[in-house]
């Protein structure tokens, strides 16, 4: 498995992710997506929306504002429950999540060795004096305060007056907008249960211990679905909410596999009873084997009717569904597949990363699924001094970029250009050479063909330039390279 350091360095070098405000020394846990990172991120969100909203008759989407009425957070339980226990070091003032202190390596000034300083692996005692950690794991000197609950929501003020009446919060999840818009969406779209509302957008959490690159940050993006079901219905002999919960777990796993995550790097993790969120009847995480070890990629919770009931009670509005068959009003149950865009991006990046040896040289390649690859095609001139080659290559770039993200590059020799594109995961390259445009001095006629190269096999075929749109249309729609190559060879 690739290390996090390797990914962070590749991301910076090749324009995927930069430290935010780097010229001022950076700002904790904030990251900026660069030119390739934004393409990758947009592609993830685009295929998620296409597969889970556009292609499904039972789904619709919304795009709600980040700032919501403060009552939303009281009713949802976030003001009271969205907390982590934290402890502070009385000496160095560092803050830790109480439940994570024992998972950190700790600093120890050992009395058995005249106070020498050691860094001891998490959970282990000192090998010299046998002591276990009691003080701050970082400075090794300060006592830790008793745990206090710390609310993770970012507080801000609405309008020019900074008083209590103006307090509002940056949303810590996108989910609540789907609940408070339930009635609006139901009525305007005339929906029948079961149906889902999806949203992708930013969320904010004042995490006590952010870190591990884009894995845990204070500002991140989520792709969430609230899938409403009639709790009185049964599907395949089971209560509808339980059936749909399992169905969504399988559909989400299949989605991640389809876009490149290997099965051996994915697992389901059932939440224990004492771990469940305040709203949840059952939650299953999809974990990914990140460079930091197995960690949550997304969660799929059965939130029951908790949220709709809470908002109905707090707002005084009825948030029910009229069941025509049973002639009764019901409060739907909701199944919530909630994924993080940044974590998905990190997983796709880690799984795509491959180092291999090709003719005695190291090749780094990101084997992105073509739909996710930030650049689909790179057009490369074999000789940048030949004006006709450059002109032809640029014309091809212009034509192909009507359909896909396509780049032109002539800043190095061809071998180097191929390696650069491999390292950012571009699935196909097009090379324009002397044969393409002909050589009048030598009396050689143009054959109007170009070479296309497949990133993964590194195989090359020659294709008429006029067929490129069709050929890439097939390849990028998922047709196998071998089949396309056979078709081209057959004319
Ligand atoms: N509405 C339910 C909800 O927000 P969650 O498990 O807290 O559930 C869902 O968040 C997903 O959002 C997580 O599985 C993760 O992918 C992403 N996520 C949560 N906190 C994050 C953070 N601080 N940084 C990056 N991604 C985060």
Describe the structure.
The chain is globular and about 85 Å long. A seven-stranded mixed beta sheet has the order 3-11-12-20-17-16-15. Strands 24-23-25-26-27 form a five-stranded mixed beta sheet, with helices on both faces. Strands 5-4-8 form a three-stranded antiparallel beta sheet. It is 29% helix and 28% strand. The chain contains 14 helices and 27 strands. With 491 residues, the protein is α+β, with helices and mostly antiparallel strands.
Ligands in the structure?
glycyl-adenosine-5'-phosphate
Q: Give the overall pLDDT as a whole number.
A: 96
Assembly status: single chain
Characterize the main sheet: 7 strands, mixed
Range of helix content: 25-40%
Low-confidence stretches: none
Number of helices: 14
- How many DSSP E strands? 27
Structural Rg: 27 Å
Strand-residue proportion: 25-35%
Task: Using the alpha-carbon principal axes, give the shape.
Answer: globular
Distance between the termini: 42 Å
Strand order of the largest sheet: 3-11-12-20-17-16-15
Structural class: alpha+beta
What's a concise summary of this model?
The protein has 491 residues and is α+β, with helices and mostly antiparallel strands. Strand 16 and strand 17 form a beta hairpin.
């Amino acid at each position: 498995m690739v290390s996090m350091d390797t990914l962070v360095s590749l991301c910076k070098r090749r324009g995927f992710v930069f430290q935010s405000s780097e010229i001022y020394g950076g700002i904790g846990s904030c990251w900026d997506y660069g030119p390739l990172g934004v393409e990758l991120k947009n592609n993830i969100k685009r295929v998620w929306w296409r597969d889970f909203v556009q292609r499904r008759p039972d789904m619709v989407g919304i795009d709600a504002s980040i700032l919501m009425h403060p009552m939303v957070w009281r009713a949802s339980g976030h003001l009271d429950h969205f907390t982590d226990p934290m402890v502070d070091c009385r000496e160095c003032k560092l803050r830790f999540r109480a439940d994570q202190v024992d998972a950190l390596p700790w600093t120890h000034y050992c009395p058995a060795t005249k106070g020498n300083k050691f860094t001891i692996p998490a959970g282990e005692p000192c090998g010299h004096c046998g002591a276990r950690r009691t003080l701050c794991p970082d400075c090794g000197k300060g006592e830790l305060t008793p745990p206090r609950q710390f609310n993770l929501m970012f507080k801000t003020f609405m309008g020019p007056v900074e008083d209590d009446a103006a307090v509002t919060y940056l949303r810590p999840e996108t989910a609540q907008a789907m609940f408070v818009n339930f009635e609006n969406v139901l009525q305007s779209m005339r929906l029948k249960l079961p149906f889902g509302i999806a949203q992708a957008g930013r969320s904010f959490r004042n995490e006590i211990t952010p870190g591990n690159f884009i894995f845990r940050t204070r500002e991140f993006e989520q792709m969430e679905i609230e899938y409403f079901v009639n709790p009185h219905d049964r599907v395949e002999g089971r209560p509808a909410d339980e059936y749909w919960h399992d169905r969504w777990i399988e559909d989400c796993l299949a989605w991640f596999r389809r876009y490149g995550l290997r099965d051996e790097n994915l697992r389901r993790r059932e939440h224990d009873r004492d771990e469940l969120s305040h709203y949840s009847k059952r939650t299953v995480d999809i974990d990914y084997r990140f460079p930091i070890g197995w960690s949550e990629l997304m969660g799929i919770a059965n939130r029951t009717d908790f949220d709709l009931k809470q908002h109905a009670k707090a707002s005084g509005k009825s948030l029910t569904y009229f069941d025509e068959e049973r002639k009764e009003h019901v409060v739907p149950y909701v199944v919530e597949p909630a994924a993080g865009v940044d974590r998905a991006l990190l997983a796709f990046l880690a799984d795509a990363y491959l180092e291999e040896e090709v003719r005695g040289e190291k090749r780094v390649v990101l084997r992105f699924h073509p739909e996710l690859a930030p650049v689909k095609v790179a057009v490369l001139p074999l000789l940048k001094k030949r004006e006709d080659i450059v002109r032809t290559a640029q014309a091809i770039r212009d034509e192909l970029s009507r359909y896909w993200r396509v780049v032109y590059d002539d800043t190095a020799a061809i071998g180097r250009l191929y390696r650069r594109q491999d390292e950012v995961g571009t699935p196909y390259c097009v090379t324009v050479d002397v044969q393409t445009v002909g050589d009048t001095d030598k009396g050689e006629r143009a054959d109007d063909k170009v070479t296309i190269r497949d990133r993964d096999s590194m195989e090359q075929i020659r294709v008429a330039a006029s067929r490129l749109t069709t050929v890439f249309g097939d390849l990028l729609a998922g047709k196998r390279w071998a089949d396309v190559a056979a078709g081209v060879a057959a004319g």
